[in-house]
Predict the 3D structure of the following.
Amino acid sequence: MDGLSLSLGEDAFNKALEAYCEGFKDEPGENGDSKRTKTDHLNVIVLNIHRGDFVDYTTLISKYLGPYLTNENSYIRARSTLLLAELLERLPDLPMNEKMLKSLVTFFVERMKSDYDSSPACLLALKSVMQNKSRKELLLQLAKTDSMNVIEYMMSTMLTAHHVPALGQSYRYKIYDNIAMLVEDQSYLEYITSGDTLVKQFTDAMEEEKDPRCLLLCMRICRLILENLTVSADSVLKIFNVTVVYFPITFRPPPNDPYGITTESLVSGLTGVFSATPLMAVHVVPLLLEKLRLTSSEVTLVKIDSLKTLQACISHYGVNALIPYLDALRHSLFQHIVSPEEQSIEEEALSVVSSMSRELAKTYATFPLSSGIDQPGSPWSLFTENLLKQSAQEAEKSIDSMLGRASGRIAGAIAASSAPGLNRAMHHFIPLLDRILKKPDGNVTQKDILEGKALSPTQKTATLDLLLLLLNGISPDVDFPRGQNPISNYLDEILSMLMEIVVRKPETGESHKNLEMNIHSSRRLAVQGLEVLISRPPSPLLSDDQMQLVIRELSSGIKEVAIRSSCMSALKKAASVSPQSTKGILEETAPLLLQSVEQEMSVDEPKYQSWALTALSELCTVPDVFDSVVPKLLNLAVVESTNEFSNSPGLIRVLSALGLIVNSNRSYGAGLKNCAESTSESKSIGMIDKLLKGLSGRIDLDKTMSKSLSESCASICRTVVQNIDEETQNATSAATVKLLLSTWDEYSQSEDKYILVETIPRLSLSLGAILGSVKSVDSFSGELESISEILLRLANERQHIGPWAATACAQTVAAILNKCDNELLSSLSDKILYSGLDRQGNKTQGLLAVIEDSQRDIALRENSLYSLVWIFKALAMRSKADGLGDKFVALLHHECTSIRLIAASSFGTVIRSCEEVLNKSSFAKESFLFKQRFFKENFVKLATSLDLPQGCCGGSNGCSSKKSSSGCGSSSSTHEGSGCCKSDPVITEITPSSVLDSRTATLFALTKMLQHVPDSFILNDIEKVVPVLVMALGSKFVNVKVSALSSLWMLVNEDVESLEPHLGTIVPLLLRLVSVSQKHDTILVRAADRVRAIDCLSGIATSLPYPQIFPFKKTIGRGIMPALDDRKRAVRRKAVECKNLWLTLQH
């Protein structure tokens, strides 16, 4: 700072003062000074004043700043004034008395008048005074006690000291900012005695303002003046005249506007001015009517802005201010609705009609309506009543014409606006609609239609559309006593019209086809009308008898395909409206649907059962319906007398429906508790008990049906157990354990192969769903060893019970183990992994011991490894898998290929989310960030085992990762496929019989883990991961390629730059993958995987700079050609998009 340090003392203070006030009077930069230097000088001054050792405000001004403030040089005066302003802002807590404040305010105001150059600094100082809490209190006290009104004194000077329109933008902004601060603070407003004077001064200052930042402030000030101060009509006119020139707002912000000024903010500001006071109505409404009368084709936006402004002003003006214009507004709005230039104009006009009707209705505080609302000359009559009459007349002339339909939309807008609006709309239109619908509409002649003696299909549809518009005006939020709803007087007539249409059954046959379609279309609309009548809360519109009648007809209607969905939608809403409607559903709808289900239980391809089950599933979201329907559906699946499953094709369909019902009622704890409790409990559904007994019985099903049955039952059991209280969970799990042990004992004693091959596989999924979904295993902790031993023995019978059942057994053991406390976990895991005793006390080998025993049968070792994978996952989630990771890494080098494959897949299994068990929904225990720790630990082990070279292609071809003129993917390449990809030894014939050697198994383990790990983990280790993915993509083993694709696709989207050095290898490998022929079944690459590979190629084209991808343009253009003839349409479509993308690449 030119030798001046931030030091204390009078000498340092004087030097800083002099430097600040005089040091920059020459051209900027001439003395080597900068903005930072100015700040340094200011900091020294502030520091000395803040310490207060030798200077305060009084001493500062009289002794130190005096020569500078009175200097003949205008620059020095301006700088010293700015210094004083800066000190007021930087030292807000510095003591100041009323006398000192008055002197300062007077000084700044007078200086503003007499010294133009010092004016910006004066404005800054006054703002600091007004903002600071303690100084504001002194200022208000001064205004209260002093003869001079200091508030008006400051305000008047700021607006009149100089000709504001001629000042610079920043200067004007400071003035407006200070004025806004005064007029929006109620404490300051008390001392503004003359609003008219302020209006004159401000409108003169604001005249011809064009800067959007200043304009926003000006509009806010105008609005605040009109809202908070008493002003005359002449002052309102002045504000209108000075702001109307900006209507409509045509400002469009420049791109990347740093100030954030938007068209919407300016429109809102101007609308705020126009709606600030009812006195504005006399100026604004004629202006808007004039704009609406414009006929030029280019005024659409003007009309839309005018309508939006009118809508915003209506509620602020009130009825009295709008009375002189109601008739003119009605004519204008009607024309803009029935014959608009654009659809958006009609929509805005309808919004205005709704707002106006709502405002007029406020004058009638109660309903039924006060007398006189429809009397000629009343505000309501001038606008709403006459508009309804006019609309009804046009609708009666031709209800299906554009004019008639637009008139109906007017009636709908008024009906939705308020209770009086709905009542009067019904009064004018319901008799009209009734007359129209009573006309014949069957086999009628065109002559009868033209003469008005008959009804055409379009006229009937338009009539029902209008009726629906009126009914949708019924508010679902406003309650009325029974019989006093706005439509009560017309309810019977409306219900009669709708029911007559719904019950009408059309004649069938080819000659009546068109008529049949028209009748069904009308019936669907009528059902929608009934849906409104029965579903509008809070209080039901219909009586109990009427509700029963409607539900009965809707229930019978769901048998008809033409109106089924409409009827079902209405019934779903009716189910929860009231006790009466729920009763109707239980008495009319549910029995009908259950009958349809029961009648087609033995049918392979049912006509009604599927939709009946879907309908029941939707209705059962209501607790009362759930309690009634679920036991009846369960009895259709499980024969009550024998507790055996019904041996019919409809069994799986019913169980699937029960699964949907249970899943949609997760929050209905009482109902699910009844499902879980034993059938011996009173009022219990006993669903789990019945399902398990059914699964334990003898059923003649093929393997596919048996698996479907097991999966359906398991899904139900899992959902129920996860959503009941812990006490019920414990009782259910205890009963389940008892069933497992008894079933196993029965098998052990009888050695009945049916139990092993049929019963246990069916039970395994449900047993796992129950035991794996409980919060705690304490209720059966004494049986844990027995359970684990039985389930693991069953898992080893994979060839007999099937892979899915064996997996379920292993998952159940893992889920139980995961929830044990630390002591029990350690004990049980040792026995499972190494050695223990069976239920007869015989010593057994643990899973690891079996796998490592070379004398054991290979099938048994494979089965043990399948089970060990899930134990590994359970322990890893608890961070208790010490040493197991090393064991699995070692198994990747096992002599047996199948062992290597299972071990490689296990790394993905451990880290991926499982839907059945070991997840949050099933209350699994999971240590903090276990996935991240597992990934970190095992990625290093696997990568070390893989011995990955440091190369751009992961060692697949030995090229260096450094970019060069011949490096892979180099932007300076001048030929296609340059560098390592030119003679890539990895691109070999892919066959499904490729041997999974140890290196490939390790690579497979890495890609499986990367496939399921969160993206953030990969991105954090991007430099280590990319070579692995590139190497995997070049593997001969197809599964390795496919598992690498998902991670590669993520990198293309998230961090494609990391792939750029490897493009020379990646691009040919992706092309090879998408062009593999499947005609001779040489390889199984799913269409979804081929699509993903093509997406990667497309993503590279859209994400990297042109110079980096240009070398591959022709390569991809040729290489993608085989995919254009792919057997799957999705692949062909993606290939076309990719080819076009690369062909149209431009610099």
